[in-house]
Every structure is written in C-alpha cells, then in structure tokens.
Amino acid sequence: MAFRWLLFLLSFLVLLSSSKSTPTTITIPLSAPSSTKPIVFLKDPWGTLNHLASLSLTRAHHIKSPKTNFSLIKIPLFPRSYGGYSISLNFGTPPQTTKFNMDTGSSLVWFPCTSRYRCSKCDFPSIKITGIPTFIPKLSSSSKLIGCKNPKCSSFFGPKIQSKCQECDPTSQNCTQTCPPYVLQYASGSTAGLLLSETLDFPDKKTIPGFLVGCSIFSIRQPEGIAGFGRSPESLPSQLGLRKFSYCLVPHAFDDTPESSDLVLYSGSGSGDTKTPGLRYTPFQKNSNNAFRDYYYVLLRKIVIGGTHVKVPYKFLVPGSDGNGGTIVDSGTTFTFMEKPVYELVAKEFEKQMANYTAATEVQTLTGLRPCFNISGEKSVFFPDLIFQFKGGAKMALPSANYFSFVGTEVICLTIVSDNVIGPGIGGGPAIILGNYHQRNFYVEFDLENERFGFKQQSCVRI
Ligand SMILES: *[C@@H]1O[C@H](CO)[C@@H](O)[C@H](O)[C@H]1NC(C)=O
Ligand SMILES: *[C@@H]1O[C@H](CO)[C@@H](O)[C@H](O)[C@H]1NC(C)=O
Ligand SMILES: *[C@@H]1O[C@H](CO)[C@@H](O)[C@H](O)[C@H]1NC(C)=O
Ligand SMILES: *[C@@H]1O[C@H](CO)[C@@H](O)[C@H](O)[C@H]1NC(C)=O
C-alpha cells in the first residue's frame, strides 16, 4: 500500500530466472518480463520515495458473503510497469472487462467507472496512460446502486452511516436515499465513488451475483482499479467466501510484458488443515486496532543478514496496544518497507558486510535507496544472505535479486525503503511491509481457513 504507486518510477536491471509454474484452481494470470534488461534511469522520480503517506485505511464492516459454487478458479496475474501486479475481471451483464491491481493491503474492489471518470496525476513518467478503460454501468442490466437501507452500505460505513443516511430514519421501510459516496485514501493516492451491486463473472459460467463493487469516478495516482484482497468483509476473498488463495509473482523489469502467472482462488468445502506440500507456514496474527483490519499480519521474529542476527527491537516486530508495529504481507506495495529504526539496522549491516565495495553516494542521494555500490569492473558480487524468520520457524531466504537491484548499469542498491522520519514513524501502522518485489519467485498461499501464510521458493515463470 504505502508507496505502491510511487515506486513504479524506479527503473532497474532486473535479474530474472526462468521456470515453471504452479498448481491448479481458479487462476488469474499475472504477467512479467522475461529477460534481463537495463532500464533507463529516470530523473526526478526518486524524490517521490520520500513521501510516504499514512498507511491506515479506514474501513468498514460485515458485508454478507454470497456463497460461491466453484472449487477453484485460476486468473492470470500480470506484472505492471507501475510496480504492481494486475488481474482482469468481468463485471456486468453483458460482462465488461477491466483491470485491477491485486492488492492484499486493502479490501474494496473498485473500477474506474463511467465515461466521466477522471484520474489526476495518472500520467506516470514511465507509463503513458492514454485513457484508463472504464466500466460503464449504463451498459449493464445488473448494475444497481446500493441504497442506504442495504446492509452492505451500513456494514461498509459502520456506525457513522446514521449521520450519512439521514433521509432514512430507522422507521422508514422504503427510503430511496443511496448509500453515501466512499473516499479511500491509499498510501500514495486515493479514489472516490459510489457502491454498486454487480454481477462478477468468471470463465466457465461461474457467476457471482450481487457482488459489492466500487464505481470510482475520481482518483488520484491510480493507474487502474484495485481488487482488494485484504481481510475486511468487502474484499474479494471475503465476498466469495474463499478458503484460500495463492499466487507466484513473476519478476519483471517494471514494464508491461504479457507474461503472466496464476492467481488461484479456492472455494468450496474445506480441506481441513491439510498443508500444501513443500510450503512453510506461519500463522496470521491479530491486530487489536480496527484501523488495520485489512492487513495480513505475520510475526517476523528475526532478520538474519550474512549469518548475523540483526537485533530489531520488539516493539517493531509485534503490534502494540495502539496497533502500530508488526509485519504485513502486501502485494500492492512494490519494495519492502521498514520503519526508519529497523531500516537503519538493516542498511548498516549490509554496509558493514559489503564495505569492500565502492559506495555510490550520488545514486543514494538521487534514489533514496541505501546502500548502493558501484560495481563497475567487478566480475562477481558477493551478496550477504538475507533471511526472514517467522513464528513457527518458517524461514524465508531471499534470492539476492529480491533485495538488490541494478540502478542503471554500474550501480546496485538494496531495494528496501524507509520513510524519511527520524525517530518514531509518523503515520503508525505496520513497521515492516513485505512488498511484491520481495515475494517474487515465491509461491505464496493465504490460507484463510487455517489463518496462516505459507510460502516456498520456486520459479514463477511459465514454461
Ligand atoms: C454447484 O454446482 C454443482 C455442480 O455444478 C451443482 O450440482 C450444485 O447444485 C451447485 N450448487 C449450488 C448451490 O448452486
Ligand atoms: C413507501 O413509499 C410509498 C410510495 O413511494 C409511500 O406512499 C409510503 O408512505 C412509503 N412508506 C414508508 C413507510 O415510508
Ligand atoms: C568482498 O568481500 C567478500 C567477502 O567478505 C569477498 O567474497 C569479495 O570477493 C570481496 N570483494 C572485493 C571486491 O574485494
Ligand atoms: C562507477 O565507477 C566507475 C569506475 O570508477 C566510474 O567511471 C563511473 O562513473 C561510476 N559510476 C557511477 C554511476 O558512479
């Protein structure tokens, strides 16, 4: 979530591997680039890294889940030049296809909507967005505005709905006031619109009527719609009553190559606590603060760099009584984020262990990334191992391409970011956000039925 849209600006030489993909179920293709390729170094964009907006999304409540009737659906998941991964979904009767950023860090599913849709600051330097495709409710016979009386309206807005639906006093049975507009603030953008009830169509006649979806008529910095895969009732997994979903992110070079992997949605009757072979699991954690209810928290116990345990203070690893702190898994964030004090410890350890390479301070200043090294002339580069160890003992040993990347052709930088704040973070929220760059070439599973996160390293590129 945080800097998600800002980071698309970064350009890299991405190290790719080739390989095969995954299991069976509802698959949504994700695409990715397939070759090693230097990217042009952009001018200003780096400055934007410094603006991290508040991570908290205020969200709402208890939307009833229509039960679905499929066991599994695969949807292709495509890497996008803005730094996220997107899926196509079909809404309406007849169906209209729009693209959505697949985001485990938020919950509402919304599309750019109506011919009057406006997006401000959507002309990204690296992607020329010439007209974002929009959904046209007029062309769909199943489009319905959600009314104030609809339980989905009150569950989305929560208790404050009373003041927003004043025409609908508690005794009137047939009030016609529509559910008030939503305004969602993301870490670096926002969107606003009206809630619709629509039919969501998957291939093979798998049809979900009455799906709550946002018809956004105005956005800032949103290159496409968002499919919220978070934990609130309005998210896609909640509305479909999924028992789990999984994906494997293909590495890419911040471009829009048509290579995808599968996002798999699992519905139907549960499989008990059967584990997927080869996966390591760590339980999802609860956060007592409702403001962060969208997020998938995991308990990170240790960060180990080149065999050295980086001593991260407890308050960052575990959410406090105010809900701040802790670690979340977020497909909508590009680079892994660490709050300043954690980031400092990690960056210093890399600086120490890689002290025999030449620091590229100019690039550090330009990009906000640190440390960066000029490796021109080096035949090979030694990268200290980076291991994240979670509750239950699950260890995630990252391939070096997931935490170091070329910036230009001579300089490599650690691709972990932080905010610019000295001392305690500004916005609160998670202290560590495991972004999609970090998750590349891992098969990951959000096992909602058993409340756990599973992963294994593998190549995500289809053969
Ligand atoms: C679900 O699909 C199966 C097979 O297609 C069918 O037999 C069953 O009646 C369906 N159940 C519901 C609730 O629609
Ligand atoms: C419902 O609507 C009808 C017609 O619009 C109106 O006559 C009636 O009084 C309304 N009932 C209530 C309980 O508001
Ligand atoms: C830097 O140190 C590592 C081990 O500490 C070594 O493997 C690598 O070759 C060294 N590189 C240079 C340029 O000296
Ligand atoms: C990297 O080092 C080489 C050789 O010292 C130098 O020519 C080049 O300008 C440096 N590149 C950057 C981006 O600092």
UniProtKB/TrEMBL annotation:
Q: Which Gene3D superfamilies match?
A: Acid Proteases (2.40.70.10)
Q: Does the keyword DNA damage apply?
A: no
Gene Ontology MF term list: aspartic-type endopeptidase activity
Keyword Protease attached: yes
What processes in GO biological process is this protein linked to? proteolysis
Signal peptide, first to last residue: 1-21
InterPro entries given in the database record: Aspartic_peptidase_A1, Pepsin-like_plant, PEPTIDASE_A1, Peptidase_aspartic_dom_sf, Plant_Aspart_Prot_A1, TAXi_C, TAXi_N
- The Peptidase A1 domain is annotated at 85-456
Pfam families named among the record's database cross-references: TAXi_C, TAXi_N
GO annotation, cellular component aspect: extracellular region
Active-site residues? 103, 330
Q: Which CDD domains match?
A: pepsin_A_like_plant (cd05476)
Alphabetized UniProt keyword annotations: Aspartyl protease, Glycoprotein, Hydrolase, Protease, Signal
Q: Which family does it belong to?
A: Belongs to the peptidase A1 family.
For this entry, the protein name equals Peptidase A1 domain-containing protein
Q: Which organism is it from?
A: Dovyalis caffra
